[in-house]
Design goal:
4 copies of one chain form a homotetramer. By secondary structure, chain A is α/β, with parallel strands linked by helices. In chain A, the strands form 3 sheets. A 7-stranded mixed sheet of chain A has the order 3-2-1-6-7-12-13, with helices on both faces. A 4-stranded parallel sheet of chain A has the order 9-10-8-11, with helices on both faces. The first copy, chain A, has a two-stranded antiparallel sheet with strand order 4-5. Chain A is built from 14 helices and 13 strands. In chain A, helix 8 packs across helix 11 and helix 9 packs antiparallel against helix 10. Chain A starts with a strand and ends in a 7-residue tail after the last helix. Chain A folds into 2 domains: 187 residues, 3-Layer(aba) Sandwich (Rossmann fold), CATH 3.40.50.450; 151 residues, Rossmann fold (3-Layer(aba) Sandwich), CATH 3.40.50.460. In chain A, strand 9, helix 8 and strand 10 form a beta-alpha-beta unit. Chains in contact: A-B, A-D, B-C, C-D. At the C-D interface, helix 1, helix 6, helix 7, helix 12 and helix 14 of C face helix 1, helix 6, helix 7, helix 12 and helix 14 of D.
Chain lengths: 373, 373, 373, 373
């Protein structure tokens, strides 16, 4: 009888429990394996904090948000204990040996794929699943969690339409996505946004204002502007690049200090981008603007049917991989098919929105501004 | 300036208005076309009942269920007017000529593809979009409407779990799908059903009862059985085939009448299948069973973000097709890409669930009964 | 330290777990009591099947539908065991004594109040809470479960509007409520129904048809008819009363048999009332009609915030009652205040919709038909 | 035939369209009146921007969020036009005369009641309805909009539980309510919050930290803290009062400047209270804390059934008031009954949460911290 361990790492994501359930039920019922859960991601793996994932533990969890196992952002090779950072790899290897673990299943996002590859290279048999509401894991069509977050963000935009329309206001709504604009683009299109700003396309505040003003001239005295957390302006980008270039040119400590202060300020400004954009729009368009930051509600709650289906299907496939001794892979979907992808092709890469993506083209066709003319 | 007509035909489906909006906004803004809507499907086309689809008419409809154009199940070549059935094709051709229509966009399911092909062959320039909550249109990955219906059916199953669990009951829930089991299979998997019965896999009531009893022996004194509208039992199938065969063997009018009565009864029984199955399960398992027929709620209401995205993307692509004079095609998605499919490859065909579909395999892996052992 | 027992009886209802949690947490934290749950209503009380309701058991249940304790429709004094019906009262008294129970808290609807009164009269200290989605418990403004069911039924009516409107159909939707029309009236008003039929107001199919036809003449070629499970026609009522009267007049066995058959048929017809009404409307109005029976979905799922608030507030009040040794009462709300009502004022009574209720007047003001002119 | 005008003023609120529909349909169908809508609140009244509210305009708006009439925060007697503030009362009187208006119906919150009283005193026949998501209008049990906002805020808290639980975090969630804590208290109780901070009860950050730490010692390594927008700390209150007192004591310009700076800082700190509280909790409890500000999503979207019922019932009652020439009143609910309340008893007053409110007591019974020990 094979023994498999399961952990969830990184930010929590709807569908994690559906995936744990599918891995577990499939491993137990189809393959006769034993399934052990580790608490709080790689930290629990290092600390040997386990829970038996039997039929009873796997029952009734399909619709629960978050992860019953708990999660953390710890890395196996750089784990903070008290004030110290510590390589927990040998302890982890030892724990897995003591538990007679045949395989370790890691559910997580981009960072987790890296950590899983590290443990695979250290000698463990690892299989992973891609989850994140940001949808930015490489080599897979889509990650579970994304569809639920899309639903929450779209519903919020639907609601903000009421206020925007009734008060003739600009509503600037910030959605999650530090590095990839999938959520902003998807929710913006589905929610009928008028402007969508992505990390992939530096925007011009003037062009955003012009798009809003043009709507007003056409008779629509309100606009919805959807902004990715990680979006930034073209001006900001140029200023940042200039400072970076200037930094290389000089060794004068006074100038360096000045440049460094400029870079710090640029970072601060980036953080308050959404509020500043709202102010810029008020000045340029003479309409009231309001900001809403959706925040952590986007990660939580009952997973959508599509996320449950994806997580369940992938979870069952993971158990098959382990049964076939196929390790060192992330179980992905490509063109709708389940495929194993070698971890080293995934780790350290990120899937951003390509500029010729159909959703981008659809925006252009419908006249939705992407913040540049 | 090109002029295009738009109509919606067949059963209403969430996402139709999102598609109308995308066709219209894209045609107007991107291609400078004029867009005319026909009321109530092919009937309105025959009766020349039109509405101008300008910016104002297209605004605020993205989230509305049903279709602002109205729909009907009429066929161009067999249209009932009063007591008569009538070939409206020539009148339709004339109407389109008078309106200087360059192209006709038909949004509908399997039947609509056939009707659209008929008009294309009669000389119109036709482009179609696949919509149906049943997801059974050929040559496309998925139809808009399906994800919303999946959400409604799954939520209903989630709710029925409360009662099933609290009362230790079997809940038999019938979901839409006369010919294809996509909705039952998807909602069953996503909703954590214990048994899923599809039109594609004739079931045995004994095997269903055994699956429920086995759960009970394992300590779970409740079960959720999801049944497709069009599912039927193996016994029923055999009886039906026998009668059909017998019909061919005889010319004796008495025997024929008897056989015909048997076939009629078989059809009647099929219609009340869900109730009979519940009774059979009560007798076999000594548990209480209750039936819920979800019905028309599955077609209605606000479209899901995924359906809005799909409908919007396909709608924008339709306008591109017309701009490129590409006619006689349905705009489909295949492996995630938008592709035009010749109407004669789609019309008259239906996409049922293949027996080796990943969702079927996932059911087997998780120990979900498909009604046969 | 006082010991209290808690059970849930009758049909499951959203908010039961919120109430159990509030009774338990308040009893433990505020009053230092011990709390024991009985499984499956009065049956578990008779069989001494218990579960400790400590902090851990009460955690995380606020949002779960149904009841974690299970429920049944068994009565203490008429409990079916195998083929026999049996008075379990002495066994129940003995069990409570062995458990050193100071008080028993019964959560249930009208029937449960009766059963609780019976146990109070047999010598137990009983406090009850009113729950039911039907809102028909006497002497309380509202029962928890009603607001959630109202939300589900209203959302269903919202969805059916899509189809009714797109297809120009009459949709007849049957909602729960055998004896009281609260749910039909509330959901009908909130959902914008055109006709609402209640058990309290026998309807005339002709008047319903006239209301639909009048809408059509005014340009609205669709209607939503909301029907309470327990609604019946004036014709049916008269026919039933005639037969009942005729039964008293005769002793002729042939006539009696004929009358009895008539009564049976009347009952059967009542059961299929919704389908017949739809047929009558099709014939009278020449519009298509479709029937949807909402069924058990109305009882299930996550309780609404209002139901959670009500259940939590009442649950906390129950613990106060027990602390004050106030027994033999149902904890009700009257004009928004929590008040204890003696069980003998509640048991055996039912709160139906009074004909001068504000919602009835609102229907009249808005021109919503109640099925009589 | 009487002619009535309708306007919506102040912040938009779910249920406004349901109320407009009920006023209009009832006025037209029941009383044969003519109904005129004014755009954008009192501003449209001054500018004579009207829309005919006939059957067609009132159809299909029941479920739409916001207000079809538009709204603004303008006051009749202090209206900003360009750079000037202007008393529009005489113009309004003239407009109403020209339109032969018999009565004006104003739908709004606390400010609107004041403005309506002003117009009543100036000679118009005014009836008002109380709407606001904050539930802080005096002399009425509840305002429409509140139940919908309660639902949105509670659902958000449900979702935040996923993240709090999975990551062992403190989640501090800020909900609307500048002056009254109804929404925070209701959503906190319904959402299972551990700490609830209201404007009515100045909190101590130490006591909040102690409540969270106590939960942790009991084994729950996460907490949900719900904070009203208008909540502030006891420390802050004392500091503010001291400065206010000191201001009265001195005439020294330097000291006054210093005090003024202190008051300004206090206001700034109050605005960033939620973020500071999260930091204080991180330091005191050694747990991670995250802040979510729900913002404008709380005002938007489809009204809940309870809000639709309330708005519809009150709207119909308004038409009755006008028919009976009963003016100068707000149509309120008290103990569940509809009653007219003289506007001068409502205007300028606000309904805050009384410290002996049942929800407050329920918090105490369940051990939910109110931020003071």
């Amino acid at each position: 009888m094979k023994v498999i361990g399961v952990l969830t790492a990184g930010g929590d994501s709807p569908g994690l429990n559906a995936a744990i359930r599918a891995v577990g039920k499939s491993a137990i019922r189809q393959h006769g394996m034993r399934v052990i859960g580790f608490k709080d991601g790689f930290r629990g793996l290092a600390q040997n904090r386990t829970v038996e994932l039997d039929e009873a533990a796997l029952s009734g969890i399909l619709t629960i948000g978050g992860t019953i196992l708990g999660t953390s952002r710890d890395k196996p090779n750089k784990m903070a204990i008290g004030d110290q950072v510590w390589d927990a790899t040998p302890v982890i290897m030892e724990n897995c040996k003591l538990l007679h673990l045949d395989a370790l299943v890691c559910l997580g996002g981009g960072g987790t794929q890296k950590n899983a590859l590290h443990l695979q290279q250290a000698g463990l048999n690892v299989v992973t699943l891609p989850k994140t509401i940001d949808n930015d894991v490489a080599e897979t069509d889509v990650t579970f969690g994304f569809d639920t977050a899309l639903g929450i963000a779209t519903e919020a935009i639907d609601r903000l339409h009421s206020t925007a329309h009734s008060h003739h206001r600009i509503i600037v709504v910030e959605v999650m996505g530090h590095n990839a604009g999938w959520l902003a683009l998807g929710a913006g299109l589905a929610g009928g946004a008028d402007v969508i700003l992505l990390p992939e396309i530096p925007y011009s505040a003037d062009d955003v204002a012009e798009a809003v003003s043009q709507r007003r001239r056409g008779g629509a005295a309100f606009s919805i502007v959807v902004v990715s957390e990680g979006a930034y302006s073209r001006y900001h980008l140029e200023r940042y690049n200039e400072l970076k270039a200037a930094k290389k040119e000089t060794e004068d400590p006074d100038k360096l200090a000045e440049i460094e202060a400029g870079l710090q300020q640029a970072l601060r400004l980036r953080r308050s981008r959404t509020n500043r954009l709202a102010e810029q729009l008020e000045i340029a368009t003479h309409l009231e603007a309001r900001v809403t930051v959706l925040g952590h509600v986007q990660r939580g709650g009952i997973p959508s049917p599509a996320d449950r289906l994806l997580a369940t299907r992938l979870g069952a496939a993971v158990a098959d991989m382990v049964a076939d001794d196929q390790y060192g892979v992330m179980v992905a979907t490509q063109s709708g098919q389940v495929v194993p992808v070698p971890l080293d092709e995934v780790a350290g890469r990120r899937k951003t929105v390509p500029l010729d993506h159909p959703w981008i083209n659809t925006c252009r066709n419908l006249g939705i501004s992407l913040g540049i003319d």
